[in-house]
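As practice, study what follows.
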Amino acid sequence: MKIRRKTLLTALAVGTSLLLAVQPAAAQQAAPLTAQQAAQIVASPDRSAADRTNDQRRKPEQMLVFIGVRPGMTALDLSAAGGYTTELLARAIGPSGMIYGQSRPRDPSRPPTPPAAPEGNSRPTAASGTAAATPAPPAAAPPAAPRPSPDALEARDRALRNAGIEAAPIAVVVRPFETPVPPELPDFDLVTLMFNYHDLGHLGVDRAAMNRAVFQALKKGGVYVIADHSGRPGTGISEAGTLHRVEEAFLRKEVEAAGFKLAAEGNFLRNPKDPRDKNTPDPPQPKDEFVLKFVKP
């Protein structure tokens, strides 16, 4: 009996060791990024001048810590655009993980969506019966069209590889917002959507379908982090194309309807003095912006 018991205990021990070796249990996961590590990533001398300018309003060190990025994660950056956030996540996740940057495909058969109002405040004009306003300076030439998102992401991935940066590979995903995740991709640890949820209203996206797709794509315990420009109470997403804002409570209700639970609120981009009635606050000051972290139960 003693021999049988010892043999059984040995078999159990070996089986447990093998299970731990192949199973990515929570205890084996890397620790989340520290504030010091985030600061080192942001301070990397090889980052572009444009990204450094973006840092001044985005506070990326605090954002990365708030998200809770861990090395080895599999992440998806929705509406990745030029890849500012995508690259930061790639650097933070490291070569043992993977980051996908999504953009929607262009459909030449559909009429173009009416353009949203440009960011910034319009120039004030003189009131009737008062002295004329100072003449506006000649209009500047329109800026060059931005590089398509897939091209921008591929360029960032290539630059990271060529510079020998220890970063996660950046993969391009071109799919509609309603079905942003290819079915063959593995479950995700993290999905981000930075300052573009409001545009989904202007673009006529089925946001409920998108949020459900994100919920399905995430692992249990996976997180969905959304940041955006704050709109006034009661405005919902109605000012997406004019003021580039969305009401926080409205957004939260839509995301929670997909099954998510609010896990944390980031206040590091808040500005309670912003009246939230213009694209850019007047007098000039930082926009009031919210950051919400949702979890899949």
Notes: Confidence is low (pLDDT under 50) at residues 1-27, 112-141. Residues 29-106+147-295 form a domain with the Rossmann fold fold (CATH 3.40.50.150).
